[in-house]
Amino acid sequence: MHAGHGQVIELSSEGGNTQARIACPANLIPAPGQYLLAGSASPLDPLPVPLFSTESTPFGFTAAPPVPSAWMPGTNLSLRGPLGRGFTLPHTARKVALIPFDDDASRLRGLMVPSLNQGAAVVLLGDSDMGNLPDAVEVQPFTALEEVLAWAEYAAFDVLRESLPGLSKRLGGSNWAAAGKEAQVLVQTPIPCGGIGECAVCAVTFKSGWKLACKEGPVFDWEEVFA
Fold first, then answer.
1. What is the architecture, at CATH level 2, of domain 95-226?
2. Model's pTM, two decimal places?
3. Does CATH number 3.40.640.10 belong to domain 2-83?
4. What integer is the mean pLDDT of 118-132?
5. pLDDT (tens digit per residue) in 78-99
6. Do 159 and 188 meet the contact criterion of CB atoms below 8 Å apart?
7. Residue ranges per domain, the chain?
8. For 56-60, what is the mean pLDDT?
């Protein structure tokens, strides 16, 4: 983990939300699924917010929406991270499925280029406008979930904490581990302390117990979530 400074370089709209291009040192750029805590001096932004990367840039990264409304180009940021556990894309995976269960693919976009660079075919599920995507990424409607899961060798999910029961029900007890496949789940939950306070605001409850998303996640293996 590192601490340093960054700056908002540009704001743009993605899927009706505002994302930000952040300039920062390379050692602060979060890997897919990891996050930074970012704070500004604005009184309208009193608490640091978690930032997830949609893609790396030559001098920083693009932060997934939403970002604080008080931020403007030129806003200086105090940054801490990268924090948490991110995605682990298997080097052997040649069929990759990206599944934003709540229809926001921004936190999964960081897996697209690494997957394509290792020669994998990539399918993204979603029913809304996904914005500008690499030409090689295939988009399928969410009704194709079962077909895409049968095809994929690795699947990355993004789901709100309160939507986990709905995802489990939709998957119908699928056992990826028994099928020799790999899957991971990014659980969206408030992570205000970044693992320092252990306040348990971010706690995710599984059948086997509960874990803190701020440092034991926010990405969890399939077996942790659905075992």
1. 3-Layer(aba) Sandwich (3.40)
2. 0.92
3. no
4. 88
5. 999 999 999 999 999 999 999 9
6. yes
7. 2-83, 95-226
8. 89
